[in-house]
């Protein structure tokens, strides 16, 4: 069932144009100027009373939460806390009927995420699940479900499910903003146009697979890999570092780019590898100046940039370009090179890509 691919992970990476389309298109009918989320019962009246949102999840799904926090706060202007479920569940979090919880889970069975959901329900909060597996425990226990239509994900390392989660988060943040009157119909129509273009843009990133493989071969002997970014890019850098750790077993750390000079920059030495994310354009100049500081200390720099920000090639050793889209949706495109990069490093090092050591696909015990 690998359809000719060497591993499930690579097959799932290449399924992403379809997964993005499947998750977005049914919710964006062209004959209605609205997002249609069938299984969401949260009414405008309840939403208007929500004064705090928690987004709770584990691992890769928790990085969807970081993107969600950024987007919902920016477009809907409600305070959002994004947190890992294993911490959230034991700190007696403050919730009531004016709290909205969004839980994110591919499997729908992750023990800590489920425990967080149950705490929220006990407190009277409304819970929306962004879930991939239909009929899973989280999908049944949440008040509402927004399914990611990614199909079964076999590889332990999440790729297509994460992209589908981002799409679901895009829909949810836009929907909340519209319901609250924070986003006009015209603005929505513009966003919908961009969302419809995303599958093709994902394909454009995937078409660079050979170039990205060559970069994986070039940097395969890196011992310490630093991922940096600001804003949405910081969330993406967390996912990039996790992917490299879990399948390539390389030491990889994500940092908010602005934090480097508060300590981590002391770790940089000749031949450290820095993956610099510069797709969140509003913060481009700031991140580029951090990249320059690291470059000056001897690191090799692999940048991920928007297609027309060509000046980055004067600073970075290598650049992977991704197509331009609306700023809200850059994370999806910027992340895909990181998946391919980690995949080929893992393959090159001879690891079991689909079943990395010590890891299980579904973590049903805490
Ligand atoms: O099934 P879930 O989405 O709840 O799983 C959460 C994490 O265990 C999962 O994302 C894990 O971090 C993956 N191995 C990442 O690739």
TrEMBL record:
It catalyses: D-fructose 6-phosphate + L-glutamine = D-glucosamine 6-phosphate + L-glutamate. Keywords: Aminotransferase, Cytoplasm, Glutamine amidotransferase, Repeat, Transferase. GO terms for cellular component: cytosol. One of its GO terms (biological process) is fructose 6-phosphate metabolic process. The keyword Lyase does not apply. Residues 43-182, 215-356 form the SIS domain. It is an enzyme of class 2 (transferase). One of its GO terms (molecular function) is carbohydrate derivative binding. It is found in: Cytoplasm. The active site is at residue 361. Its EC number is 2.6.1.16. Catalyzes the first step in hexosamine metabolism, converting fructose-6P into glucosamine-6P using glutamine as a nitrogen source. Homodimer. This is Glutamine--fructose-6-phosphate aminotransferase [isomerizing]. It comes from Vallitalea pronyensis. The gene is glmS. The chain holds residues 245 to 610 of 610 of the full protein.
């Amino acid at each position: 069932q690998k359809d000719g691919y060497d591993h499930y992970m690579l097959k799932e990476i290449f399924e992403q144009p379809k997964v993005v389309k499947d998750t977005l298109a049914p919710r964006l009918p062209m004959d209605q100027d609205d997002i249609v989320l069938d299984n969401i019962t949260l009414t405008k009246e309840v939403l208007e009373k929500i004064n705090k949102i928690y987004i709770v999840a584990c691992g890769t799904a928790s990085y969807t939460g970081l993107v969600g926090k950024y987007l919902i706060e920016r477009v809907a202007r409600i305070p959002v806390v994004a947190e890992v479920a294993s911490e959230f569940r034991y700190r007696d979090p403050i919730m009531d009927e004016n709290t909205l919880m969004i839980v994110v889970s591919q499997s729908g069975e992750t023990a800590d995420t489920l425990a967080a959901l149950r705490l929220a329900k006990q407190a009277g909060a409304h819970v929306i699940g962004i879930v991939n597996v239909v009929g899973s425990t989280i999908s049944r226990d949440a008040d509402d479900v927004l399914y990611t239509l990614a199909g079964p994900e076999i590889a332990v390392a999440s790729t297509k499910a994460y992209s589908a989660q981002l799409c679901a988060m895009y829909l949810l943040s836009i929907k909340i903003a519209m319901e609250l009157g924070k986003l006009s119909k015209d603005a929505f129509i513009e966003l919908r146009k961009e969302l419809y273009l995303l599958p093709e843009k994902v394909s454009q990133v995937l078409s660079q697979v050979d170039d990205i493989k060559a970069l994986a071969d070039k940097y395969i002997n890196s011992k310490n890999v630093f991922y940096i970014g600001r804003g949405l890019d910081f969330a993406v850098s967390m996912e990039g570092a996790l992917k490299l750790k879990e399948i390539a077993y390389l030491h990889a750390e994500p940092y908010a780019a602005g934090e480097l000079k508060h300590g981590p920059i002391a770790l940089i030495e000749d031949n450290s590898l820095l993956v610099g994310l510069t797709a969140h354009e509003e913060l481009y100049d700031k991140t580029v100046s951090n990249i320059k500081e690291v470059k000056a200390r001897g690191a090799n720099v692999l940048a991920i940039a928007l297609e027309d920000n060509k000046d980055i090639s004067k600073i970075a050793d290598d650049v992977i370009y991704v197509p331009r889209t609306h700023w809200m949706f850059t994370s999806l495109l910027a992340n895909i090179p990181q998946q391919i990069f980690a995949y080929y490093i893992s393959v090159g090092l001879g690891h079991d890509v689909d079943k990395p050591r010590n890891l299980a696909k579904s973590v049903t015990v805490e």
